[in-house]
Each structure stands twice: as structure tokens, then as C-alpha cells.
Write a structure and sequence with these properties.
The protein is an alpha+beta fold and 682 residues long. It has four domains: 123 residues, Tetratricopeptide repeat domain (Serine Threonine Protein Phosphatase 5, Tetratricopeptide repeat, Alpha Horseshoe); 263 residues, TolB, C-terminal domain (Neuraminidase); 97 residues, Immunoglobulin-like, CATH 2.60.40; 173 residues, von Willebrand factor, type A domain (Rossmann fold, 3-Layer(aba) Sandwich). It contains 14 helices and 40 strands. The strands form ten sheets. It has a six-stranded mixed sheet with strand order 34-33-32-35-36-37, with helices on both faces. The chain has a four-stranded antiparallel sheet with strand order 1-26-25-24. A four-stranded antiparallel sheet has the order 2-3-4-5, with no helix packed on it. It is globular. The protein starts with a helix and ends with a strand.
């Protein structure tokens, strides 16, 4: 009898769980499911949700599978099981679960859109990063009924935080505008002001250069816009200028200026000392430097010529008349972006092929500058109509944004903290968003005290995991390897966490802790034995597992020499495929970098991972060293935003599954995500 009385309250509790569970799922439960099964399903589901928010996705998969075994047709469990598969990199399995839930009527358009985006990413994975067709999505007028904001925008410079600098020729100003088109900084220049500024360049040392067309000089400012000094003076001698227009910088820090009045290109070093000039142009306009080649547009002939960095003529990239009236040239993705009257063009620097990617229409306009911002939009300055025009990819405008609530912190309920990631449909992160771009709701009602605590894109700390190849080929470069690890550890300046994994037949975790300890690293102390078989997939998986709860800016650095032995390449990815490995990294915000110990061409598998995860390839003996690798990871765009709000939902003593939704609005685009969580048990 004792056991019977003990069972009754438990059964009552299970019934209460299942009743709430059924209400939240939005789907009819199978009639043959007993109250006890529903209660067990609720318990396993709760554990799965908590494991998911801890980043323990394998544990979450087990719990959701158990929960589903009690309620096989419960759509809410199917949806969360799909989320666990997605974060584990198994996108095919995730889509299968989501489709089952969607076909049963769960999730509506929101789930259908999620399925479409993930499926499209899998189809286009590895297909390249070609520039697509763009359509006008927004505009920022220089004048409204309230005030004049700027006059005659001429040139602009996108920044990594989503904002951009704007040169206002008519009002003699330098303005900084955020991702929403709001002016956040206005600089008038030194005491005597700017004298018809035309172009802006950010030097590799962080300073800013402004060309002053009427002042016949360049104005150098620091990164905050404070005056430093002038470059050049009026005249025809070397180092003198007559109507300087557009600017570019080479890898050595030398500055190239299109000198309209003298019909030539004038070159200064980074400190403003005159070096030389070259070329004879009718009307030199935009200029760009890429891979030690200088590209110069002529607005009269409508062509682009190519020179080396010493000023020697090489060839014509485009024939005369290929462009109508080109002005600025910008480099993006290895191609030139040109503003040409009412069109934005890309020019292939290998073939000279010209493609139109955006157009304003038939109305009279004069686009003087176009460039890609940090969020994948093209921003163009319309000098004639006194406005900025924003172009976005067509599929982003139609399909919207991909918004994900990645973590809910509810330990201090009712004070809730959310981590939210915002991307476009092509997986590019959206940075520079503000509190006004988001709306958090609970059961469709606005949440109380919504506050944007911060965004990870501004973080100056990163976590790195070094995977050291323990093959016999890589072992021949022990001294170079030791130097590389020490240099990377030193570049982290004691901030963040450094992890080291040895990649052999089985991966081994060698170190986790402060980077400073590894400034005396020696490969002789590694525990991982040398092997002829290197399981790269297992090593990457182990590295990623440790990085899921690391700093938002995080990366894996794979250090190896190219294999010379037959059979090693085939063993690299046997348990986890390349696509699933790349998805696991991407879906958890982890970049993959390849550091080569030799000059041989890297394996295609490694190149695939670097291309798919915003990573990069580095050679250990490159002239600038490899310490910049750490800076590159910190500079990677990160679209993780943290919010706090105060919940008003009843918790049922911690047993209730509490819903939360968030919507994001950016320049006529929007995205939405819904999730839920459990408050602490009481």
C-alpha cells in the first residue's frame, strides 16, 4: 500500500507535465500515449533543452531521442531534435526532423523558412563566393524636412563594425554612419577645415587619409579623426598635386594618388614623403592596388589600365569604352568594384570581364563610389541626388534574415539573458546592429526592460585551438613548428585560452590554459605519438567540442606539412565527412585556419574547410610573420548579440516550458526565431 500511495502523486505530476507539454507543442498528441509516458517524455525533454543550452549537443540528442520514444509524434520534440542535429553539424538529419514536424502542421512559415535556408546553404556549399545580382533596398537622403544631414556625398569607406565613413564634398565633412544610416560622428577637419574632400583611405597603420581636391593636398588623420599632417603641395614637381582625387595603398604602405590636374599617378610613402609619379592620362579617376598590380581607371576613355607598383605599364584590363564614366575603384573578393554613372560593376582582374551587379534605374544619377560593407550590402554615393543608396542581394530581400537564439540564461529568473546570432541567407554575419533593430516578445507580448548588453563583434579577445599534425612528414619541421606555436601564443598577449591538440591516429588533448605558458613550447614534449595515419576529422571534432563554450571569436588552426606518403590523404575524413565537419564549425561560429610548414599546395580537404568557414591559409615563413593570424581571427565578423530582459511568465515552480521570441529588422529585411526554456525548479 505504501508504494501505491507514493505512485499517485507522481502520476499526478506526470499528468500535469503532459498537459502543459501538449499545450506548448501546438500539435495533437497521440491518443494511445499514456499519462505516464507523457510525464517521462517531459522529463527527458527538459534535460535535453538544458543540455542544448549548455552546448552539450550529443547529450541533447540522446535526451530528445528518449523523449521521442515515449511520444513518437510530438512535434515540439521533433523540432528540438532537429535543432540538436543542426548544431552538431548533421544538417541532413536536422532537415529530416524539421520536415516531419512541418508536414504535421508545426512551426508554420517560420519553420518552413528555416528549412529552406538550411537546405539552400547545403546546395550552394563549396560553389564559390561569386558576386550576385543586387537590388536597391534602402536609401539615406542627405536632406530631409527636418535638417540637412550632408551635401554631395562623394566617397565612402566601410568599416568592420558595420558602420562606414562618408566624404561629403559639398559640406566639407567626414561623417561616420552606422548600419542603420544614422550619423554617429561628424568631423570638420583641422582648424582651417577640409577643402573639397574627395576620397578616403584607411592606411595599414590605422591612420586615415583624405584627398582635398581644391586644397591640392592629402590630409592625414588618426583613427579618431584628429589631424596629424598634410601630404604634398600645389604644383607639378614630384610630390606636388593639382586636384588630387582617388587613393589606394599597396602592401608596403605606399600611397597612390590619381592626380587629375597633372594627368598622372603620384606615389608617397606611408609617412608622406614623395617617391615618384607615373603614367599619362587624359582623366585619371579611380585607383586600386591588388597583388602588386596597380589598376587605374580613365573616365574619358572608359578603360582600366594595369601597372606594376614601380609605375611600369603592364597592360589594359578593359578596352576603351568598356565603361562609361568610371570613378572610384574598390577591391573586393579579388575583383574590382566600379561606380559607373548609374551602375555598379564588377571587373574580373584575371580576364577583364565586366559584369553589372546593380543599377539605380533611368532617373538622372551620378554614382561616384560603390563598395561592399561588412554586412554584404553595396553602399553607393549618389552625388547628383545627394543621397546614399543601399543595394542588397535579391534572395536576402525576398527570404529575409536567419536569426537564431543560441542560448538562454535563466538561472536568475525572472532576469533572462539571451545570446542571439544574426546572419543573412548566405551565412554572412550581420554586424553593427543596435537595440532598435530587435524586438523580444513573450507569447507575442513585448518583453519588459529589453536591453542590448553588447555585441561580440567588438570583442578584442579570441580563443584558439592549435591542431598539430603528428605525421612523419610534419615531424621534419619541428623547429619551425615550435617557433610558430610560440609566436601565436605570444601574439595572444596572455588573453583568451589556448588549446593544443595532437592529431595522430587518435587525437590527444595536450594543453588548455593561458597562452603565455606556451611561449616556451617544444614539440618534444607532445604526448601524441607520430603516425602514418592522421585522423583530421576526429581532431577537428575534438577541437570544436572544446570551443563551443569558448569566446565568441574562436578558431581552429591546423598546423601541418603536406603529406608525401600514399594513403594519408584518404584517412583524413573517414568518420565525419567534409560537409558535416564544415557545418559543425559554421553552425557554432568556429573558423578553420591552415598553417602550412612547407610551400606545397595544401590538400583540397583543408582548402574546402578554410573557404567554407571564413578561415584562411598561412605559410609559416611569410615575410610579415604569423603573429597577425591572431589579429585576423579577432577581426573576423561576429554577429552574436547579448540581451537581457525581465520575464513576466508564470513558471509553475520551474516546470513550465517558457516561450520567447525575437525579431530583427534591418534595412527593409527581417528575420525571426522562437525558442523556449525552463526556469530553475522551486
Amino acid at each position: 500500500m505504501k508504494s501505491r500511495f507514493f505512485f499517485l502523486p507522481v502520476l499526478f505530476l506526470f499528468c500535469a507535465y503532459s498537459l502543459f507539454f501538449a499545450q506548448q507543442s501546438g500539435a495533437r498528441l497521440v491518443s494511445e500515449a499514456s499519462p505516464v509516458d507523457r510525464g517521462y517524455a517531459e522529463q527527458e525533454f527538459r534535460r535535453g533543452v538544458q543540455a542544448w543550452y549548455r552546448g552539450a549537443f550529443n547529450d541533447a540528442l540522446i535526451q530528445f531521442e528518449k523523449s521521442l520514444s515515449y511520444l513518437p509524434s510530438e512535434n515540439l520534440i521533433l523540432y528540438w531534435l532537429g535543432k540538436a542535429y543542426y548544431r552538431s553539424g548533421m544538417e541532413g538529419a536536422a532537415l529530416q526532423q524539421w520536415r516531419l514536424a512541418s508536414d504535421a502542421g508545426y512551426g508554420g512559415l517560420l519553420l518552413q523558412n528555416k528549412i529552406e535556408i538550411v537546405q539552400n546553404r547545403r546546395i550552394t556549399s563549396g560553389s564559390g563566393r561569386e558576386v550576385l545580382r543586387f537590388s536597391e533596398s534602402a536609401s539615406f537622403p542627405g536632406k530631409t524636412d527636418a535638417a540637412v544631414h550632408f551635401s554631395q556625398p562623394l566617397s565612402l569607406l566601410p568599416l568592420k563594425n558595420g558602420s562606414f565613413w562618408l566624404i561629403a564634398y559639398g559640406s566639407n565633412e567626414l561623417l561616420q554612419m552606422d548600419a542603420n544610416g544614422l550619423i554617429v560622428n561628424r568631423i570638420k577637419g583641422p582648424l582651417n577645415g577640409f577643402d573639397r574632400p574627395m576620397d578616403i583611405l584607411r592606411q595599414s597603420n590605422g591612420n586615415i587619409l583624405i584627398s582635398e581636391y581644391a586644397g591640392d593636398r592629402l590630409c592625414q588623420l588618426d583613427s579618431k579623426g584628429r589631424f596629424i599632417k598634410y601630404f604634398g603641395s600645389k604644383g607639378r614637381a614630384n610630390g606636388q598635386l593639382l586636384g588630387p582625387q582617388f587613393l589606394a595603398e599597396d602592401a608596403s604602405g605606399n600611397i597612390y594618388v590619381s592626380d587629375y590636374g597633372n594627368g598622372r599617378i603620384t606615389v608617397f610613402n606611408a609617412d608622406g614623403e614623395a617617391l615618384f609619379y607615373f603614367g599619362k592620362f587624359v582623366s585619371p579617376a579611380g585607383i586600386a592596388v591588388f597583388n602588386e598590380r596597380v589598376y587605374v581607371a580613365d573616365s574619358v576613355s572608359g578603360s582600366i589600365s594595369v601597372y606594376d607598383t614601380a609605375g611600369n605599364y603592364a597592360e589594359k584590363l578593359t578596352e576603351d569604352g568598356a565603361l562609361v564614366n568610371p570613378e572610384t575603384l574598390r577591391i573586393h573578393g579579388g575583383n574590382l568594384i566600379a561606380a559607373d554613372t548609374n551602375k555598379v560593376l564588377t571587373i574580373d582582374i584575371a580576364s577583364g570581364a565586366v559584369h553589372e551587379i546593380a543599377r539605380t534605374g533611368a532617373a538622372p544619377v551620378r554614382l561616384t563610389c560603390a563598395d561592399m560593407d561588412a554586412n554584404g550590402n553595396i553602399i553607393a554615393s549618389d552625388f547628383k541626388n545627394n543621397e546614399l543608396v543601399v543595394f542588397s542581394r535579391m534572395n536576402d530581400l525576398v527570404g529575409g534574415l536567419f536569426v537564431q537564439i543560441e542560448r538562454v540564461y535563466a538561472d536568475d529568473f525572472p532576469n533572462i539573458t539571451l545570446d542571439v546570432r544574426v546572419e543573412n541567407r548566405s551565412r554572412n554575419p550581420l554586424v553593427g546592429l543596435k537595440d532598435v533593430n530587435f524586438l523580444i516578445t513573450e507569447e507575442k507580448r513585448p518583453a519588459a526592460r529589453q536591453t542590448l548588453v553588447g555585441d561580440a563583434n567588438s570583442n578584442e579577445v579570441c580563443d584558439l585551438t592549435l591542431i598539430i599534425d603528428r605525421s612523419y612528414d610534419s615531424a621534419q619541421y619541428a623547429r619551425a613548428l615550435d617557433a610558430a606555436v610560440r609566436e601565436i601564443a605570444g601574439a595572444m598577449q596572455g588573453r583568451g585560452t589556448l588549446r593544443i591538440i595532437g592529431a595522430g591516429k587518435l587525437p590527444v588533448s595536450e594543453y588548455t590554459g593561458n597562452p603565455s605558458v606556451m611561449e616556451k613550447f617544444s614539440s618534444a614534449n607532445l604526448k601524441t605519438p607520430l603516425s602514418s595515419v592522421i585522423s583530421v576529422d576526429l581532431a577537428v571534432r575534438l577541437a570544436a567540442n572544446d570551443l563551443i563554450n569558448a569566446e565568441p571569436k574562436r578558431a581552429i588552426v591546423y598546423i601541418s606539412a603536406s603529406p608525401r606518403s600514399e594513403g594519408i590523404k584518404a584517412q583524413n575524413f573517414t568518420k565525419y565527412g567534409l560537409t558535416d565537419t564544415a557545418a559543425y564549425l559554421n553552425n557554432n561560429g568556429i573558423a578553420f585556419l591552415n598553417l602550412a610548414l612547407d610551400r606545397n599546395v595544401p590538400a583540397e580537404e583543408l582548402k574546402f574547410l578554410t573557404d567554407e568557414t571564413q578561415g584562411g591559409f598561412y605559410y609559416i615563413f611569410r615575410p610579415q610573420g604569423i603573429s597577425g593570424l591572431v589579429r585576423d581571427v579577432i577581426d573576423l565578423p561576429c554577429s552574436l548579440y547579448r540581451f537581457t530582459y525581465v520575464s513576466s511568465l508564470p513558471t509553475d515552480f520551474g516546470r513550465a516550458f517558457l516561450p520567447v521570441e525575437i525579431e530583427t529588422y534591418v534595412l527593409n529585411r527581417s528575420g525571426r526565431d522562437e525558442t523556449g526554456y525552463f526556469s530553475p525548479l522551486q
